[in-house]
Write a structure and sequence with these properties.
Length: 471
Amino acid sequence: MPEVFDVIVVGAGPAGEVVAGRVAAAGLSTVIVERELAGGECSYWACMPSKALLRPVDLAGEVSRVPGMRLDGPIDAVAVLAHRDTVVSNYDDSGQARWLDSAKVTLVRGTGRLTGARSVEVATADGGTRTLTANHAVVLATGSGAVIPPVAGLAAARPWTNREVTAARAVPDRLVVIGGGVVACEMAQAMRGLGSREVTMLVRGGGLLDRVEPFAGKAVARSLTEQGVDIRLRESAEKVERPEPGGVVTVRLKDGDTITAEEILVATGRSPATGDLGLESVGLPESGPVGVDDSMRATGVADGWLYAVGDVNGQALLTHMGKYQARIASDVIVARARGEADDRPSMRDRADRVGAPQVIFTDPQVCAVGRTEAQARAEGFDVRVVEYDMGQVAGGYLLGDGYEGRAKAVVDERRRVLLGVTFVAPGAAELLHAATIAVTAGVTLDDLWHAVPSYPTVSEVWLRLLEEYGL
């Protein structure tokens, strides 16, 4: 017989857990289905372990810029990997399971699949099958998976993705990285900083980080090159060979050159994990992102019972945005279950429209929110751009002789508000939330003039940007 709950959540990553916790706290009976570890990609194979690997490299760079400070020898990679294991709870999700239990959320371990309206069939970890039925809502929160490009021999060579590189048991002597995006840049820097003798990046395009302002990618490329990373632009792999499992990898390039390495990391993008979700059973395409409206309800599904949050809807593949969408969806579900109004401002997605905030944890860090200059112009805004050298801010002097950075603000001249802001500098991540508030809330430049930054901090760059604008 079907087991009946008010809400079924498929996927126990950060977004799924937020939905489950919030609807259960509101008194709705809730079940969450997870086929791997409760806590999801971010907790075990992405955000958390990658930052644990990057933090020592970041700190080493910071120390090197301060006169009188020095590192005695290389970073202890063994200790860093051990700390990574602590950060990911040694890949044990019992703590997450206990939290779900305390939140009165039923955890079902297995693979969930839609079989019709409000119905989910679970192939359980013990080989059985459970049928779940929802009174009010089913929420898809299955995340995304790494894309392996169709390069001859690549899949057979068992390349690393974000999962294998963040879970590495040792630092490879030589590493080839395919890609020039966030994972590629972060992990190239981490592995080089932790002891890889050779790191080679194969980048199909003409620069790194092509989704942010061009100066950001150039700054990161300069930093990686100075650290010894070999960046090959407009280059790609034509064939990959690994004759022996676990042996050396040979990569043949389109120009005929070859590279050998202990490991090859593929970081060429991600796709929503929807291929085996049974979407066709409810009239949706069987693969690809699940389209949603601004309340996170799946479009094209009658009666509005299906929701999709996080990477699975393809809107912004970022953990914090998935959790934001989850808060919206859960509050809408609760309101509708109670027969209450579901149209409060907090119940509609606004952040995805203006541009999600993102930090790329390289050294220098790249921090951006809103539209780039190119995006703003393409959308027809009356744009004015102001930039400032962050190394000229008083707070920057205190961070060392080699402190460099740049800030860029994209202004809507008609409304005199910020459309986008980018900071590229060591340790700039903590500046981003102020920019996120300004962009999302549409704070005018005249009002920002009265938000006085403290001295001497790098946040004084806000004052300098406004002065460059002419206030």
